[in-house]
Write a structure and sequence with these properties.
7-stranded parallel sheet; alpha/beta; single chain; globular
Length: about 375
Amino acid sequence: MKIAIISHTEHYTKKDGTVVGWGSTIKEINHLTEIVDKITHIAPLHSIKPPLSSLPYNSTSIEFVPLKPSGGKFLKKLSILYTAPYNLIKIHKAIKNADYVQFRAPTGMGIYVLPYLKFINSKKYWVKYAGNWKDEQMPLGNKVQKIWLQKCLPLKNKVTVNGNWQSEKKNVLPFNNPCLDENDRLLGKDSTKNKDLSNKINFCFVGALNNHKGVDKIINAFLKINNDLIGTIHFAGDGVLKEKYTSLANNIKYKVIFHGALPKNELTEIYRQSHFILLPSKSEGFPKVIGEAMNFGCIPIVSEVSCINQYITDKENGFLISPLSEQQIQTKIEEALLLTEKSFFEIINKNYDKASIFTYKYYNNQLLKKVFI
């Protein structure tokens, strides 16, 4: 079976000529080679230095077809329109021999790729919608793409979404966001077994450093907390506000480390050292970092948005921040610090078992059962 994937996944060229792309997506595609014979990934190629989280493809059965990058803020959004003719020609040629096409939404080029797939494309296709399917305040472009998928997607084609929304049509399928391989599961089992509560309690945040992800609220919450159990607060990720956050965090009485963007092995070590992960986002689909954290024994303290409460139950296997505010983040951190050792290990073992649904093996099996039919 041959598949083509159309996405907005950023790709870069290293100095040695190797093409690399955004790590989490590339890893997912690498694992797809376990169930398909050929993959053509059609995505934008950028001319900037690749971030440390980028990964190469691991199989010669994966072909990368570069598109012109587009989108951005303000007038840069117009680039979506003037790059469309070139990109559509590339897409049309690249999917010629595919048996199935996947489009990863929502993204700016969805405004022309979705109509193309419906009216011009003759291939079977499905849409992987990675955003918050139930966000009432989603950006206009995302809203248009969601309405298109609800109203214009033929029933024979599927859209896979984060969460189980029973009110949707039968071709809207709940799918878990994969992020774990067999080695992660082995390391996670060891990590949960060897968590140390005899010293200090460590927290981590993993993601883009911006206000949308709630980094400012995390810092302000810790400024108000006085608890000798707290050890180190790790921030793994990057963003233009990093220096501002670093300056604000200097006033926190606990040790705070801004690691920047990290490769997978170093990020795994952060999970292993941490006892809780904080993710107070304004909106999410289902972040892969929650599944990763559950696998490595970090209890989630997360905002109650999208489908997150379908996986995390407040005070049972994590802590839900609702309403989203600095005061609520502070309250949930303080509640987390009250967990007994017995309760802590009961939760992380329960979460480790639950994290099996976030494996690439599970995801691939679901594709075979529900999409490739």
